[in-house]
Amino acid sequence: MALSDDIRLLSEVPLFQGLDEDQLRLVAFGAERRNVSKGQELFRERSPAECAFVVARGRIDLYTEGRDGIADLSRSVGPGTLLSELALVTMVERKFTAIAAEDGEVLRIARTLFHRLLEEYPSVAAVLQERIRQNLARLAAEALAQQHRFA
């Protein structure tokens, strides 16, 4: 795919919405496009996350380990989904296992690339920090709503 296609894809990712074309070009140019085959594991739950992925084409199934040790399908995501966004900021563990449900492509965005974006465009840092904070608050609220399942 062309760089312009990657810029368009990134502009649709909620975390990157509102960034100008030069900012998106920096990310798109530095991102690594990877083909994934149906059944291919992108990453495993609890593994160190040094990068995030944007689904460019296809569907990715997300699994979490259940109480019985068996992986349960949590949800399936498609193009424009950002996986492991916190990995862009700091070292974290993956919260789920991601497996390609069909042939597709992903963009791999390294933490070092994201930090370069913030260094070159300091004004972007405040915007992205607020978006990440909002996402964390949403996730915390969703987890709290599911608390009864673990009692």
UniProtKB/TrEMBL annotation:
GO terms for cellular component: cytosol. Residues 15-118 form the Cyclic nucleotide-binding domain. This is Cyclic nucleotide-binding domain-containing protein. GO terms for molecular function: DNA-binding transcription factor activity. It comes from the Bacteria.
